[in-house]
Write a structure and sequence with these properties.
It is built from 17 helices and 14 strands. The radius of gyration is 24 Å and the shape is globular. It starts with a strand and ends with a helix.
């Protein structure tokens, strides 16, 4: 089991307490930690133990600390109902844990009058592989080389080869199960459908719409997206007719007609990826919801080169441009299947959109923010993403290409 250990001198925390006010202390400790430590005798010792625990958690992920992805404040320490310490990671820290398939962190803390010591132990998150996933991996190797290539790009430095193979088998199991669920869907009653999908975070979508400028819904191919979209979004009866999906035509044509027909029957509008700008702007003016499936490769004519899991990936720039030139709120949305077979559709907190400075720089900044949101979503349930898609077709792309082009355009002007 991976472990991190750290010791903090009590005098170091006593100096921190004397030098900083409550606002300054919040740069190191959460509101709960400061409250739980109290204000009387022993406060420095209790906070020292928590700071040692934060440092010990960071030492579980030395590479991420080195690159500045996480810091001690990303790990808060709280008490469970039984009084034992538990780690509450920030959203960024949770993504790092998911990348390493760490399900939880166990803590052991102690202190004397002189120092405090903590040991953090990483608890692995299991990769569950049903028998039909193992079978499909062997006898139905649909784009298996692409799946394995992509998984190695993302998890090659954090998981073992056996774990990566298990992830691929779990991926095939997920899509086989998704196919069966879609085939059963027409035979379910409305009550059965409503019990199949749970919607969370609806307040994030509602509050965004209350601003009256429309919503750009950022999403991708997560979970059983066809089922969760058709069933889950129908639960928002008050927004009937206000969801519009930007979709690329599918091949063959009959598949596209079938999928588009199901979406329209469910009350959703569909928009072509090309030539629909005026229609999108009109819909946002009417305070509608425009859904952008953002996790696919695009040619540079329609995109920019941006980081996706630390590698250059050609990414659509249209969402960033729309977000910059309108006041529409960008809300990420995800879906996944729970172990009991039910599905969750979740609307995440809004993404702040950069609008100051050069437009080209803002497009790059916002596109990166959108990709980061997708990364965190994918890492929660990695086996339920579409790894068979060639997301990194042009691995030789330079991440600085657009900045170089921006500099050249500025000089020419």
């Amino acid at each position: 089991m991976r472990q991190g250990i750290d010791t903090v001198e009590i005098s170091r925390i006593e100096k921190l307490l004397s030098d900083l006010d409550e606002e300054g202390l919040r740069r190191f400790f959460s509101e709960y930690e400061l409250s739980e430590a109290g204000n009387g005798k022993g406060r420095a010792q209790r906070l020292a133990a928590r700071f040692a625990a934060k440092e010990a958690c960071c030492k579980l992920f030395p590479k991420e600390i080195c690159f500045g992805k996480i810091e001690p404040v990303d790990f808060a320490v709280e008490r469970s109902g039984y009084g034992d310490p538990k780690v509450i990671p920030s959203e960024v820290a949770r993504a790092v844990m998911n990348h390493h398939r760490v399900g939880d962190i166990q803590l052991s803390m102690t202190h004397t009058d002189i120092s405090a010591t903590a040991i953090a132990s990483a608890v692995p998150a299991p990769i569950l592989v049903p028998w039909y996933g193992r079978l499909a991996y062997r006898i139905i190797p649909l784009r298996r080389s692409v799946v394995m290539h992509n998984l190695k790009l993302v998890f090659g430095k954090t998981l073992t080869p056996d774990q990566i193979e298990d992830m691929a088998k779990a991926f095939y199991a997920h899509h086989l199960k998704s196919l069966g669920e879609v085939m059963k869907l027409p035979f379910l009653t409305e009550k059965q459908k409503s019990q199949l999908v749970e919607v969370r975070g609806g307040e994030n979508l509602t509050s965004a719409l209350e601003e009256g400028n429309g919503v750009l819904l950022l999403t991708g191919h997560f979970g059983n997206w066809e089922l969760s979209t058709v069933v889950g979004l129908k639960q928002f009866s008050e927004f009937s007719g206000r969801f519009h999906f930007i979709r690329r035509p599918l091949k063959p044509k009959w598949v596209n007609n079938w999928v588009m027909g199901r979406f329209r029957k469910a009350g959703f509008g569909t928009l072509e990826k090309e030539g629909s700008l005026d229609e999108i702007l009109d819909l946002l003016d009417q305070n509608h919801i425009v859904v952008s499936v953002f996790d696919q490769y695009t040619i540079l004519k329609y995109g920019v080169v941006s980081q996706f899991f630390g590698r250059a990936a050609r990414t659509f720039k249209s969402l960033a441009m729309l977000a910059q030139c309108t006041n529409a709120v960008v809300v990420p949305a995800s879906s996944w299947r729970e172990p009991n077979g039910t599905h969750v559709v979740q609307f995440e907190p809004r993404i702040e959109v950069a609008k100051k400075g050069r437009s080209r720089d803002n497009v790059l900044t916002n596109t990166r923010r959108f990709n980061e949101a997708l990364e965190r979503i994918i890492l929660r349930h990695p086996e339920q993403w579409i790894w068979m898609h060639k997301r990194w077709k042009n691995e030789g792309d330079d991440l600085t290409v657009d900045r170089k082009r921006a500099t050249r355009d500025s000089s020419a002007a």
